[in-house]
Protein: DUF6009 family protein
Amino acid sequence: MSSLITDDEISHETELVWLEDISGLDYVRQSLDRLPTRRSKPAYHRDGRMVGYALLGPKAKASPSSGTWRRRVFWVLPHDRDSEPDGLYATGAPAEAIDPRTLAPGSKGRKTERSEGGPPSSAMRELGITLPL
Structure:
């Protein structure tokens, strides 16, 4: 889950690689996967599709016990909003979902009004507060 990813776990990221245009995605799911390399495209073994992944710099250390690196992978499932706009996530978003426009190497990103699928609350509108869209 996004909320469980800590800054130190992604501090060695140098680049995020997107496999498709993310401008049409309100959110992507992110996870830390154990991968055999620090830079190549990872294999993908989930339902849905992988839309991106992180590359690690040369100072990133592999796990001494497994020889693998923990890297972020970004993905969507078949029932996510991009495929089923009126489905389960017409409003709200999964716990591990974040707005891809808030992502950067070493930054876990955040949820936004766009990723949550809803308009700003009336209190936010009255106060003139907007979240990134």
User: Anything to note?
Assistant: The radius of gyration is 16 Å.
